[in-house]
Amino acid sequence: MAKTIGEDFSQDIKVNRFKLEEENEIQPALYDYYAKQYAEVQTSKDEKEDREELILAQKALYYRKNPLEGVKPTDASIEAMVIVDDDVQQSKEELRKSKAACYTLKGCMGALDSRKASLDNLTVLYSKNYYQNRVTGGTEEGSDAMNESLNRRSK
Q1: Which of 14, 112, 114, 135 is the most buried (most CB within 10 A)?
Q2: Domain ranges of the chain
């Protein structure tokens, strides 16, 4: 069964220690896919930051020229009017969502770095014949066989 990258991150980062060659082959593709996703959300976040800065400046100029009735146009009152403005609030919400996506993908990139380190460690263990006499499968029979093997080695 072929692995489809990007459908389920928790499946993407799993490592099958019995298929190290395949896992090592797919690692660059996984990293490339998520690095591109991260670059896209980072770019989107940067654009939203620029947009928010523009909206803040436009609103500040607007409220300086058109103060609310009964409000003296001081720096503090203009700042307050800008902060509560609906366009500014919407811009801030969009930026928060972009930052959240960015933080999530940054975490994914860290997990992929950990996956790479795990693959490196497993490859070293394999090359040192760590798994040569190991029993797999997680069955009771396998556990008994592993315990027997360990007991013989310790005697």
Answers
A1: 112
A2: 16-154
